[in-house]
Fold this protein.
Amino acid sequence: MKITDLKCTMLGANPVVRITTDEGISGLGAVETYKPYIGPYVQFYKQMIVGEDPTNVERVMMRIRQMGAFKPWGAAVSAIEIALWDIAGKAAGLPVYKLLGGKVRDKVRVYNGAIRSPMKGQNPEDYAEAVAKMKTLPEGFTIVKQAISFHSPMVSQVPDYFYGEVQPIGRHPHRGLLTERGLKHTVECVAAMKEVLGDEIGLALDCGPGWTLPDAIRFAEAVAPYNLLWLEDMLTGDYKPYVQPELYRELTRRSSTPIHTGEQIYLRQNFTSLIESNAVNIVGPDPCDVGGIAELKWIAEYADLHGILMAPHGTGNGLIGLAALVQVAATLPQNYIAFEYPIGQPDWWYDIVEGLPRPIVQNGFIEVWDRPGLGIEINAEAARQYLPEADRDFFD
Ligand SMILES: [Mg+2]
C-alpha cells in the first residue's frame, strides 16, 4: 500500500487531515479547533510521505517527526500520525487499540474540559454556578476542570489581580506576582466551587501558565484542604515553548495537591526531565500536539515507571480527536486517570460522523468501540455542504 495524497481542510471549527492510498483506504487525523491556519503546515510534509507504505507508521513518522515543535507546531505531524494509525487499523481489519497492544480497559473515563456555559462574572458565586451546571450534565462526569487565575478572565476582570500588565491579546500571555487580593479571590472561588461539588465530583483547576513559584506554593498550600484532583500549568504550560522542570520540582515538593502539566509539549524527549526528576505528579500531553497517539502511549508508560499519573489533554480536538483519544486511552497503563472530553463544533459535527456511541458518555465513561481503525467515519455526502469552496474534492 502506498500513500497517494495528504489533504487538510476546515470542517466547522476543526481542521481535518485526510491521507489517501492506492488501495482505496483513507485515514483521518485531527487538529485542535484553535488552529485554522494549519493547512499550509500540513502540506509541508506531503512530499516527504507520498509513496510510503502508511501501515509502517513508525517508518513514515521518522521522515517527519523531527520537523515539528511545541504547540502549535506539532499539530500537523500529530494529525498525520493519527491518520496513519487509522489506515493501518483499517488495512488490518482491527481497531487501533489492538495495534497499540490491546485493551487494558473496556471503557475510558473522561473529564469535562469543553462543555461550558457563559459565566456572568469572575466572582465566587459565578464559579459556583458554573460547576453547578456541570454537575447536572447528562454525561455524568466524575471529574470537571475549571479555568482560574491566569487561565481565566480573572486577570482582566478582578481589579488589581496581579502586579503585571494586562495584555489585550495573546494566548495566556500573563505572568507575574499576584496581589494578596488576587490570591485570596482565587482561593475564595475554589472554596465556592467545592461547596457545590462536595466530594461527589472531583475538581481540577487549569491555572496558568504565569504564576511565580512563591505564589504557586502559597496557593497550593491554601487549597490543600479541598482535596483538588490537580493544579494544571501553574508555572509553564499552554503555548509556552519550554518546560522548566526544576521549578516544577520545587512546587511539587511543596504541594500535597497533585501538580500537572504537559499539553504544550512536543515529543517524548521533552518529557524525560519532567518524569525522571518527578517534577510533576501528573502529565497531560495532547495526542494532537505531542506527536500522535503512539507518542502519548510511550510517555504514559514511561511516566508509570516513575509513579507519575496520566490525564491527557483534548478539549479542542473535535470528534476525530475524540476517537483517537478513546483508542489510545483504552491501552494506557493503570496510571491513567481520564482524558479531557472534546466536543463537536458546531453541532452538525454529530450528524456527519458515523460510528460514535449514542449517547457518547454515560456516567462519565465512554465504552470503547471495536470497529477497524479509529472506528469512525465522516459521511462525505452529509459533510460536503460544509466544506470550504476550494476543498470540495476533499473526500474524493
Ligand atoms: Mg490546560
